[in-house]
Structure formats: C-alpha cells, structure tokens
Model the fold of this input.
Amino acid sequence: MDADLVPRLEALYKQVAAPFVQSLGLRIVSVEKDVSVMALPVMPHLVHGGGVLCGQAMLATADIAMVLGLAAWFGGFRPMTTVQLQTTFLRPVPADTAEVTVTCRILRCGKTLAFGEIDMTLPDGKLVAQSTTTYALL
Amino acid sequence: MDADLVPRLEALYKQVAAPFVQSLGLRIVSVEKDVSVMALPVMPHLVHGGGVLCGQAMLATADIAMVLGLAAWFGGFRPMTTVQLQTTFLRPVPADTAEVTVTCRILRCGKTLAFGEIDMTLPDGKLVAQSTTTYALL
Amino acid sequence: MDADLVPRLEALYKQVAAPFVQSLGLRIVSVEKDVSVMALPVMPHLVHGGGVLCGQAMLATADIAMVLGLAAWFGGFRPMTTVQLQTTFLRPVPADTAEVTVTCRILRCGKTLAFGEIDMTLPDGKLVAQSTTTYALL
Amino acid sequence: MDADLVPRLEALYKQVAAPFVQSLGLRIVSVEKDVSVMALPVMPHLVHGGGVLCGQAMLATADIAMVLGLAAWFGGFRPMTTVQLQTTFLRPVPADTAEVTVTCRILRCGKTLAFGEIDMTLPDGKLVAQSTTTYALL
Done:
C-alpha cells in the first residue's frame, strides 16, 4: 500500500462526504487493499433517547466505509454509487462505549459492480452490526 | 387517527431521535395507522461532493421513518429496536430537489416483530430508494 | 402486450429454468410490461415437516419470478444474472392453501441494472413474503 | 460436539426438510457449535439453460443451511422460522464444478432471534454467494 493512503482517505472523507456524514467523525485506522479499518467514536449527538448509539449512525457509517474501502482498493477515489445496502443489527452499543471498530472487506470488485461486507464490533470484539453492500462503478 | 398525532410524532422525533438524526429536518406530512408520509428536505449538508443527496441521509431517514410509522401504528412511542434494514437505491436525487417524499407502510405488526416498507420518491413521483425493514418490539 | 406473451413466458420457464425450479410448478396468470402475476401451487413436495410451505420454495419463486417479469418487460428473454435478493417472511403459508399469488413489479430497468419487487399473498390477500431484488443485464 | 451430531443433522435434513429441499442433495461435512460446513453437489437438475448452477438452488441452500446450523448450535432441532434472508451473488458457478462448499456461521443466538451468515465458495476458495439471515426462535 502507498504509505500515504491513510491521509489520502482522510482527505477524501473530508472533501467528498456530505457534512452530515463528516459529522460521524470517522477515523481511518488502517488500510490494506481489500480490508480497511475505521473507528466510529460514540459521540453524544449520535446517541438516541434510549441511551445507545443510534442505528442511523451505523447505517451511514457502513455506506461511507465502503466508499473509503473502494478508494483503498483502487488507490484513490473513483466515482461510484451505492446499489444496495443490507444491515443487520445484533446488539445495542452502550453510550459509554469509546469507539465502534468498523471493518470493511471488499469481497469482489469487477468491472461494473463491487461487493463488500462491513462488520462493526465493540472493544471486546463482539459483533454489533453487519452490512453487505453492492456498488456500481461509474 | 387522533387529531394530534402529527404534532405528537413531531415531538417524538425531536425528543427521542439522536441529534444526528434530527439534523435531517424531517417533516411529518400525514399519518394514518399503517401509512405515514414524511418529507426530507434536500439541504446542503446532506449533499455530497458529487452534487446529489447522500445515500447516508436516505438510509438514516428510512430507519427513523419506521420508528415514527410504528409510533403512528401504536398511537404513541413504544420501545423497539431495528433488526434489519435493506435499502436499494434506484436513482440519484439532484441537489436542487426541494424534498424527497418518504412513505412508510407497516406491512405487518405482530407481538414481537414488525415489518415495514419505506419508499422515497421525487416530486415527479419517481422512486429513488426503497427499503424493507424488520423491527423487534421490546 | 403481445397476445402471446403468456405462452412465451411459459415456454421460457420450461426451457430455461433448471428442473429444480420447474418443479415449483409456477403458472403464469397475467402479464403487463411492468407487472407480472404468477401462481405457486402449494404442492406436497414443497411442504416441510412443520406443515407449512417451505420458505425455500418462496425464495426460488421470487428469483424466477423476476426473470420472467424482466422477460415480460423486454418482450422476450434477455441474458441476465441475479445480483442480490432480499426476502422477508411475514406469515406462514398453511399446507392446505391452494395457491400463493406471486406479483412481480419492475421498479426500474436501466441499461445495466434492473430492480424489482415480488409480493406473495394468500388467497385472502394477506402478504406472506416480500422480496426486493437487483439484476444485472448482460 | 457430540460425536453423532453429523448423522443427526443428516437425519434432520431427511425428515424435516421439504422434498423440494432434500432434492438439493446437501451433504454435512463438519459441524461445530457455531460453524457448520456443508457441500452442495452441482447436479444436472440444478443447472439452468445458461449452463451454470441456478441461483434458486443457492437461495434454498442458504436457508436450509441456517436451519441445520442452528440445530448444531442447540444440539438438536428447535422450531424456528426464517424472518429474513438476503443473498448477494458474486460469481457464476460453472456446471462442471463438483461441489459448492457452504459454510454457515451463527453470528448471534439470543432468546428470540438468531443471526447467521452463509458463505458459498468454489473448490478454489472463491466466494460465489453470501447470505445473511435472521431467524425467529419459536
């Protein structure tokens, strides 16, 4: 991997993502061609009245994680669009959790379609949400 | 329906949803027991670098729409959790679109599980995104 | 619609579908460009030990229904492949049900991707399963 | 694991699954509490006119694999029903493939809901289909 891929993905996140998505405060942890790891900090504005991380933040995170994961795969940004995103929620994330670890794996990247899987885990490794997604490469 | 169900759902949205989700600025348009209609204004902070409404805003909207749609079904808030949300994106939403219409239909509401469908359409009626979702009633 | 589209879809089902899928015994009920209706007879070999129509028959039906629905859209067979199929099961189908009605709607058909929705209902109109699906046109 | 769990799952497959599903000819390869491996032989009646394993056989396999995987988890059959199954198809399976390997992982098993993931791979290890599923325990 390019030594500067992490800062380039960080720049991409700040320049291309909508401000709504930037407000998630995602941090790029590590990047390989087919596996990118990010961290989602459980900030107060992401917590709902029930005292847990809102599912909407996880949905938005899954989608932007795949955009960044595909940028890692291609070594830079490429125009693309989400075709489909399926997310299953397995456990709540307590509000006092520091970060959720977001692992995006590129399962296949063809000429026109790319397939990925995004796992979100608690600090103890327990799976809280799992997404599978399809992207169209433009 | 109770005449005051629209203001009660609006209050619920402001009190229970995470600030991240409140920033979507959803408006409740009409409410029946099994069909709730909302409007998502295409505000600048929801638009990404490609000049269209970001998919993440639509994902977050689909999820909160079902929470509100189930509150309409039950005549008030009930604790629940998203089990699964699948969204397909059919068309981009140009940044100069005023609003996306969000229609949430409760397909079935049993003792422990509820099923819904959320359609998002452009002002000309074209479908831009469709979600199906399962909720666990607590 | 061509007057002979129903027999042509029936021929397609018998010639192109795998024998495993032909064993579902699907009947074409009516065909329009964007909505095709089929009937799935609840035959004994489709019923599992719990005394209800097996979900696997409904999954297989949803997938072939979209193939036939797209053939109706195009006025004939076109090579394609399933990208993704999501199915939610809302109610069991008792073994003594005569038929499940299968309604396939083409939600969008672009140059490379097609999107559809398949509803399955009991004779009393109750929804038993709902699928959303994405196909790649080859 | 009980030494006799493989034959017990085989018996379950033959006694509880619908004949339609038995016709898939699934073979139990190995069983652990949370990971069950099966093999789907690519038999002629599962191949469609395009000369590849039909997706419908993979959909049906994913669903029965989770039933068997949950029986492995519980050490025996338990009544349950599929809530939702999402499958993504990544590559075609050529008709001359001997077997598809089906790996079912139980991601979480709670009191009322169970979550699983089913991967299908070619003999060379390439992923051909991936499913995520939710079951309701009765």
In short: The radius of gyration of chain C is 14 Å. The longest helix of chain C spans residues 55-74. DSSP finds three helices and six strands in chain C. The interface with chain A takes residues 83-84, 86, 112-113, 134, 136 of chain C (CB under 8 Å).
